[in-house]
Design brief:
Layout lengths: L5 H6 L3 E4 L3 E2 L10 E5 L7 E8 L2 E7 L5 E7 L19 E2 L9 E6 L7 E5 L13 E2 L9 E2 L1
Parallel strand pairs: 1-11, 2-6, 6-8
Antiparallel strand pairs: 1-3, 3-4, 4-5, 5-6, 7-10, 8-9
């Protein structure tokens, strides 16, 4: 458990804060517990995590902890590199097979691990080639494998 308060937890990229948040629900199948953590990226300072199960979740990004959290897309895959945001790796990633049906919306995207995120058009059915699915598994069990405040 993070013991020094919410601000300390959000300053620590390894600490997960159990907290509800507002999110773009246009392509999501997860409606369980919600967590927020620092992403270390800017833009996309905060990661929003909604659990389908402790090992399957949907990830979002936001620049404002109290603002809208947006979907995250991948320009050169199907989202495996997004496991970096919760402490997983591309080798532990399992992605939903529905990423090629993702709607055209606004959200965050990048092309590979460690790259900064950009905000713009995402979704295979829109004007971009930045795809995203409805869930992701990263080999990280939340909350068991992480620090939670």
């Amino acid at each position: 458990m993070c013991k020094d308060g919410i601000a300390f937890c959000l300053a620590d990229p390894n600490c997960f804060l159990q907290m509800n948040f507002t999110f773009d629900d246009s392509y999501n199948v997860c409606y369980g517990d919600m967590y927020i953590k620092n992403s270390t990226f800017n833009p996309g300072k905060y990661v929003g995590i909604i659990l389908c199960s402790p090992t399957r979740y949907h990830l979002f990004l936001s620049d404002d902890i109290y603002g809208m959290f947006y979907n995250i897309a991948d320009g050169s895959g199907s989202g495996e590199d997004h496991c970096e945001l919760v402490g997983g790796t591309t080798s532990t990633a399992i992605v939903s097979a529905d990423y090629k049906q993702s709607p055209g919306i606004k959200g965050y995207y990048r092309h590979s691990m460690n790259q900064p995120f950009k905000f713009g058009d995402i979704g295979e059915l829109g004007p971009s080639s930045n795809w995203f699915g409805t869930w992701l598994e990263c080999g990280v069990t939340i909350p068991d494998d992480v620090y939670v405040y």
